[in-house]
Amino acid sequence: MTPLAYSDLRQRTRERDRSLREKVMSLEEAAKLVSDGDHLAVGGCTASRTPFAMIWALVRASKRDLTVSRSIMSTEGDIFYASGLSTHLITSWFSQGIVWGVSKVMRAYTESKRARFEEWSHMAMGLRYRAGAMGVPFLPMRSMLGSDVLGMVSGDGEGPADASFAAAKTMECPFTGETLLAVPALNPDVAIIHVQRCDAYGNAQLDGLTFMDIDIAMAANRVILTTERVVSNEQIRRHPDQTKIGFFTVDAVVEVPFGCAPHECYGLYEPFYSHMDMYAEMTARDPEAGARAYLERFYHEPKDWADYLSRIGMAELLDAQRRGSGIYDD
Amino acid sequence: MTIEATRMSLAGTLAPQDYTASELLGVMSARLLKDGQTVFAGVGIPLLAAILAQKTHAPGLTILFEGGVIGPFVEAGKLPPSTNEQRCTRRANMLVSITEVLLMLQRGYVDVGFMGGAQIDRYGNLNSSYIGDARNPKIRLPGTGGGNDIASLADMIVAMKHEKRRFVEKVDFITSPGFINGGQTRAAAGLPAGGMFRVVTDLGILGFDAETRQMMVVALHPGVTAADIKANTGFELPVPADVTTTEPPTPEELAILRELDPEQLYTA
């Protein structure tokens, strides 16, 4: 993930059709915008606003060799490894969630060295996306210094594994002489982000926590939005202050109700806890066989997204929705 | 009032068999938080202790969550399983991006960083990344999350179980820096602000020597001796002659904790 040369970044942006045009398509059509070997950035954080429908479509389209980055990874990280979609994840924390303990699938793949989990601090992830969004090759920061997290990504640990590895570097501030850490920009080839609503052009309005999604959308060279609902452009224009991701960054819009299931979508549904427990149980004893069985049942066998949701179950869906909409109760 | 609570209040003072180790951690670390402070809290005991402090002596405590939440009041019985979910946002003053809330640490708007720990050493360095050699680990752990950023930029309280395998001479991997190799080594590494303030365990409260930056005992919990705490620590841990004993948890504090976490998500 060496920072893209500025001239290349500008060139790739120039080449995109950034006009105000309708770009609604299916999950399958949107999956064609991702190429094998791409750097894919995933919106949301942990079990919140994970664009699971798009991940589901990418697994079904048998994408390979993606480098995947996200602020914090939960069960989708397991899915990336177990499906063969990626063997290189860049994130700050990776496990299903603290109440389920350390991810056994993550352990199985990383401890046998079949996959990498490249660890940066959470703020470093944020500033790497922000540098990408700003069109600068790095940003300075004051954490990770003195730690072995820095050692692992600055050359004295496992990295740089290859020439494409962009290491963090300590630097002297040109004004004060202080020691700072320079973290390199991330400009993902494709970002996938799930939102509560957007219009057909890709103007997206987010409720609740935005995580790193606004910077990710600005940093990426292509953005696929999945959305609970496509609304009219008129509705967007009534509250332009609520628009967090602009149409000009967006290349595809896919309407997918419950597009984060079994994770959360703020104000609409909370995580599907029983399903998350079931997943943890399936991967507890033999993590790889358990993950394969899960993929078969929920990723490969369903005939469409509605079938996927049916397999998770109506009772789960209603429970998650009841808890999710409770955010607005006093 | 439950029968259990009645029994406890009749007894007056609580004995160690009346509470779990996690409940003790929650109560003792909540007491370290002051009204009016801004605390950056991790999930688990820190979250629980911060809410307990809000409901007792620190109603004006501002909690920050890594997900981008400023000043929430989390609802009893609806604890979030991470700091990045909608349950964290209840009655908050402000929601921002993850990057923005972490930058508040760097700018200096956070009084206390408060998190749990898996492994700690005599200089307060924390490991949550690898057990064994990082290049060939026995166990790959979940990693830093915001832990490194919080520990690098704020005065820290850490709450963790006191076991010999967790309190080691040198951590396998510094995920979140304490005082690194002691003395001035933290500042020399480019971390002039923050550092370890207190480590709260189920045996006592620990602090750090102002010069050497080595861990030392500040107070012991009721029924714990200096020999007990030394026996459960993997390095030489000084216990001053004038060491104090903490006040046991009160029935009120325990009742609040149990109401907050009825399913014992964090307090089993």
From TrEMBL, chain A:
The keyword Transcription does not apply. Gene3D superfamilies: 3.30.30.40, Glutaconate Coenzyme A-transferase. Keywords: Transferase. Pfam families: CoA_trans. One of its GO terms (molecular function) is CoA-transferase activity. The keyword Chloroplast does not apply. This is CoA transferase subunit A. It comes from Ancylobacter mangrovi. The lineage of its organism: Bacteria, Pseudomonadati, Pseudomonadota, Alphaproteobacteria, Hyphomicrobiales.
TrEMBL record, chain B:
InterPro entries: CoA_trans_fam_I, NagB/RpiA_transferase-like. This is 3-oxoadipate--succinyl-CoA transferase subunit B. The keyword Ubl conjugation does not apply. SMART domains: CoA_trans. It comes from the Bacteria. One of its GO terms (molecular function) is CoA-transferase activity. Pfam families: CoA_trans. Keywords: Transferase. SUPFAM superfamilies: NagB/RpiA/CoA transferase-like (SSF100950). The keyword Plastid does not apply. It comes from Ancylobacter mangrovi.
